[in-house]
Amino acid sequence: MRVELGGQAENRLVGAVEVDELAVSPHARGQGLAGRILDLLCEGATDCWLPTAPKAQDAIRLYERLGRQRLTKPAANIVVFTRSARGPANSYASS
User: Fold this and answer.
1) Residue range 59-94, pLDDT digits in tens
2) Could you give the angle at the alpha carbon of 52 between the alpha carbons of 3 and 38, nearest 5°?
3) Which of 77, 94, 83 is nearest to 35 (CA)?
4) Strand order in the sheet with 47-52
5) Which parts of the chain fold into alpha helices (H)?
6) Beta strands in 16-93 (DSSP E)
7) S-S: 47 plus which of 16, 22, 38, 77, CB 3.0-4.6 Å?
8) Distance, CA of 85 to CA of 29 (rounded, Å)
9) Does pLDDT of 4 surpass 90?
10) Beta strand 47-52 pairing with 69-70
11) Residues linked to residue 52 through DSSP beta bridges, in sequence order
12) What is the dihedral of CA 21, 18, 82, 77, to 10 degrees?
């Protein structure tokens, strides 16, 4: 992951909450549950990050729709999103 994120790995991810896996049953999708779960998991954390696979297009679309900041470039081997109480800092989306 350091290769993909460079210096951001240390600055943004160490000590942050990591949501490694998130799943909502197919019959419960489309009700905003994933967003509410993420909000609860990340509540009170300065930083919260979400790694996923490039082939997990549903997750990528969800995190983008929820306004998470993408930290990795489109060609990366892993996709990392963050939600930071500190605001944007060197995210891929803002560069």
Assistant:
1) 999 999 999 999 888 888 889 998 865 554 445 544
2) 125
3) 83
4) 17-18, 47-52, 79-84, 69-70
5) 2-5, 8, 33-42, 57-65
6) 17-18, 47-52, 69-70, 79-84
7) 16
8) 27
9) no
10) unpaired
11) 79
12) -60
Structure confidence at residue 6 (pLDDT): 67
Number of CB atoms found within 10 A of residue 13's CB: 20
Residue type, 75: A
Measure the CA angle with vertex 91, ends 72 and 94; round to 5°. 120
Q: Show the tokens assigned to 20.
A: 């490694």
8 A C-beta contact, residue 22 and residue 85:
no
76's tokens: 């990366």
Give residue-wise pLDDT tens across range 14-39: 788 989 888 889 999 899 999 999 99
